[in-house]
Amino acid sequence: MGPTAWEDSEFTLAMTELRLGDLGMLPFSSTVAELKAAADATLREAEAEVARVAAPSGSRTVENTLDALNRALVQIVDLGNHGRFLFSVHPDAALREAGRGVSEEADRFFNGYRVNRALYDALAEVDLKSADTPTRFAVEKMRREMRRSGVELNAETRAQLQQLNDKIDRLSNEFAENIARLVRTVEVSDPAQLDGLPEDYRAAHPPGPDGAIRITTQYPDVLPVLAYARSGELRRKALHEFLNRAYPENLPVLDELLRCRYELARVLGYAEYATYVIEDKMMKTPAAAHEFLDRVATTVRDQARADLELFLARKRKDDPAAKHLDPWDANIWCWEGYYDAKVRSEQFGVDTKVLREYLPYPRVRDGLFGLCERLFGLRFEPVQNAGLWHPSVEAFDVRRDGRPLGRCYLDLVPREGKYGHAAQFDLRCGIQGLQLPQAALVCNFLDPKIPADQALMQYSDVVTFFHEFGHLLHALFSGHGRWLYNTQGFVEWDFIEAPSQLFEEWARDLATLREFARHPTTGAPIPEELLERLKAAESVGRASRWLVQVAYSAISLDLYERDPAHLDTTERFREVYRRYALLPPPEDCHFQAAWGHLTGYSAIYYTYTWSLVIARDLLRPFQDKGTLTDPETARRYAEEILIPGGSRTADELIRRYLGRPFDFRAFESWVLAGATALPVSPPPLRTP
């Protein structure tokens, strides 16, 4: 047997040269003055190095040009990541604002770097005759990025483009900051309105001194209400506030962001921004994206309609006069809605409130770590005194087969000013022989009013936890190559969700759940009967969920596919949404104001659906083995998909792993699975 990718000279993980203790970076506990001083020094050093590389030179080699430039760029990427992270998570408002400033300084550096004509020409002169494939590919991507940024245009136009990009970065940060800080609240005067919610939730939401119970739009507060509250009026109010976060503040910010991106695309010679941003992705063109979304919509629409008819039939048991579903009745705006939860409970015997009892956070976390050890040989070692930004955060050093791989952080409790969704953040780029990767999961699963060692997780949050952990594994595995442009951050962005969507499947795997899903009091494992019902019920509402994802994808495309002059984003959102989804959006809905993906993903929100089609196909080698925990398949997946990072095209990664291009069939059979079978089960299992 020949060398694996792990041993291949292109991908050697030179981890033995570094120790996990060698993880120095800007501290999370800096003062504002210290942060700014460190940032200024880093920027000056990197700017001097770039100027030196760009200056006229004799022969240009990989060592005297690419290595030097790579070190400078890594410094600034790390600086920007650090500032962006503080901006997203730090409890101190002054440090959050300082972090935002640092991230924008790093963005300005890169906006200037990308239009540096002397540097662009210097890269063209590097002798690559004896360079390996990852090195040549890294240089190709660097020059393509600079070319697409306008580096070949005249100096005046390059300056205009740099100013536009600087403004876009500021607007994106303002948009994200508004979402994080503008938390809304629903007041409940009658505790009976909480009927149907789990007991631990009700205990954590007692009436205040004025007798009112306050429920925020943060995830641990609002999502259980939408899934379990018997009161349709409470669900309506909660959904209204949730869909109007950051409204009206973010509407003018979004309008200006759309205008600036449209202007940027026009200056670069593109008809509109969507064409520009999709050009270097797997999809290539907006037309191909529309064709793909229409294909998915056609595939799932009939089954989605059957989903909603099923939910309406269940609603009529509560209200025989009901003629339609309301938006707060089903899984249209969240992964689990009220009547789909009822169907799972009553027709399949799956009560997710009972399931929560078997999902205490520490067991879920440790079960996930144990899974990674079985699949990939990883060990997670708690780090004490890591100088963290909040007492609720956990840090772990990660080893693979005993060798250092990197460090990860888990920040899972919501708090004021914190990023309000779920995401993986890169903190430090891993570069062979230079530094190990660091990454963090920033999520909002755990109720801050309940100690983490007692917190119970929603099953849907467990799936999201595994999803984000898939991103984290990608960052840790891919952070051992030579070049920044070959790391996870430089994978084609419409492939980036595929590894994380694949990793979700272990949260749905019965054997994996059985390993860690245990009752926190009795220690009893989750009953096999409940797991079997969970598996059978998993398809309920799947088609309707993904039809809504198609609608979101079409909206993001549409907003960036036109001249935004005189565009009313609220009306446009409703118009495009109705074109695909089967239920209209609620009245007075301004979800675009809280839709953070409109900044980072812009026109390519279709990524989630496109990547899912790929992920379903990447699962097949495991299915062919008859188990998702086959270590040989897992190692091959790591070696062909995760470790190479962005050193190959996504198409090539897939072909090497599958032995062929991916296709649509696995997704199609999965999304329609269970369409004709609705088994009648005994009453839901009760907590022992």
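That was protein one. Protein two is written in the same sequence-then-structure order:
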Amino acid sequence: MMLAARLAIFLCLPFFLTAVLSAQSVTVSQPTIWATKPDVAAFEKIETDRLAAGERAIETLLAVKGPRTIENTLVPFDEAVHQNNSAGYFAGLMEQVHPEATFRDHATAMLTKASAAQTAIALNHDVYNALAALDLSKTDATTRYYVTRQLLEFRLAGVDKDDATRARLKKLNDQSTEQQSMFDRNIADGQKVVEADPSELDGLPQDYIDRHKPDANGKIHITTNYPDALPVFTFAKSDSLRRRVTLAFSTRAYPKNQEVLTNLMKTRYEIATLLGYSSWADYNAADKMIAKGHNIADFIQQVNDASRPLAQREFEMLLAEKQKTTPGAKEIWSYEAAYLSELVRRTKYDFDSQSVRPYFPFMQVKQGILDAAAELFHVSFQQEPNVPSWDPSVETWIVIDSGKPIGRFYLDMHPRPGKFSHAEMVAVLDGIRGKQLPEAILVCNFPAPTATDAGLMDYGDVETFFHEFGHLMHHILGGQQQWAGISGISMESDFVEAPSQMLEEWIRSPQVLAKFARHYKTGEPIPADLVARMNRASAFGRGGWVGRQNSFTAISYDIYKTKPADVDLDAVTLDDARRYTLFLPLPDTHLWASFGHLGGYSSAYYTYLWDKVIAEDFFLQFDRRNLLAGDAPMRYRRVVLEPGGSISANDLVKNFLGRPQNITALQYWMAEEFDSSAGSTKSAGQ
């Protein structure tokens, strides 16, 4: 548990430009992430300077003689947080996105140094004592909360342990950072290629087929990059191809990550036990909304009880679909679920997922999401031209509120070798009111548009884009704080997915889609009837989706809830898939090896379902017929997003809902529009 450190926000996961430009052009004096030549020497100088500035701030704090004050103690402490976070963000980002492997190696080394600097502060008795000596009686509530929470993080880091234990904890934290970096790198670097006959592409979209021409031997090559692999799972008629691509996708970091993950589990277990906890899962929960490890197990069971009946009815519909071609079938393999779900949506709901793709060319989707966010959050966006970066495709944007810049973000949206292969928002800089604008980046892997290819996106791609943009706006709007340590997404980390999952719901709004979803050839707006059928069809499978997420949650918890020596990674993965889903897991996939969240989220993957509960509760407060009507949009910005980490996430929830979250909204969402007994649907809000 790293003092004041940030989580790279995962997923997991865009019309007329003038619609989001401010009326008057705005300039930002703050330099962009690459203000100089983007080479290794420049990068390492930036990192070294930031870490040195952090060290000087701590030296200033420790040199104080006399009474401790906010000015002589908390100000330099927060400056150290600011500098070390900035170094860690930049190093972690370059490790994941830079096109050169040697550069990524340098980034990994710098990330280790930044993490070591954070650990050194977290284990420094004198820094802890200085903060503890502050008289907070006359300070504002935000400052009191900040200091109180930091003191908790110090204790969780082991600052109150003896010298030998603190030295061991420092070594273990450095080790953990290196091991997690290697775990992530192995996934990013582990791309595989599957050979296929052209006939096996039957069922896939025509633009996908056009992008995959046979080689000299008449073979098609399909990589495990998302734009290549995901359409196969959903649309390929060839069972053999779907199975082969699933195996390649799931094993892209196997066997390399077996030793890496095992060692990471051992390191984390030792950290937890040195600090008096029975397991990493229990320790990792101590500063989160969920509070205790066993509460994760209780939550898993609660979600299973809520989702199982609906998942069972959905499964029966999928099995009936499979039996049309495989009479007498009694089981469904996990790799068949997406394809069979697509068939059910076509037969029961008269909806073909490919039918909406022509309305989702990448450039229109990007602009549409900017437009939607501008309207929802009452901001505007302005692109900054000719900004140097690590790849020519990266875009730079300014966020403007009432004519003033309040943040900057970058878009790195398309796959390339060695790049992080999923979708995420990553912080770049913490916002500090009057001193530094918050910055963040979206790292995604959507189809890249070309002169001959519009880069058509799947429904799920668009949903992911909305999700990640929700993270981004949370970081920017919450980044207007006095202190770096409570800026942006710095509250309890099991709240971080709620705003992003809430924004996913915008893709289901006819009001929002009507503004950007236009046919890439004809310009025709997406038909209202198609949107209605899309929404009805998308409601099918939610029970199964929750079950699958619950299985991932259980895997995350079960490998960290006990001694690593007692964990068989394959057995845990297969057992939890069988326990919480109704599908047969494919043998030999070694899912854990490429399950990147086992590094970052570790035992806290429950966050996605925990926050889905909160997100759906939030969304029920909006008018479904007009999402922008009433006071909900601005109240959501002010009450949920703008506070950043200045108050507890439990209070953020209660302040917006008027009560704690409950699972009722998730149950409504799962069953919304779907009546399995009749195969009929009902309108949202009825």
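Residues 192-250 form one domain. Keep this in mind for the problem set.
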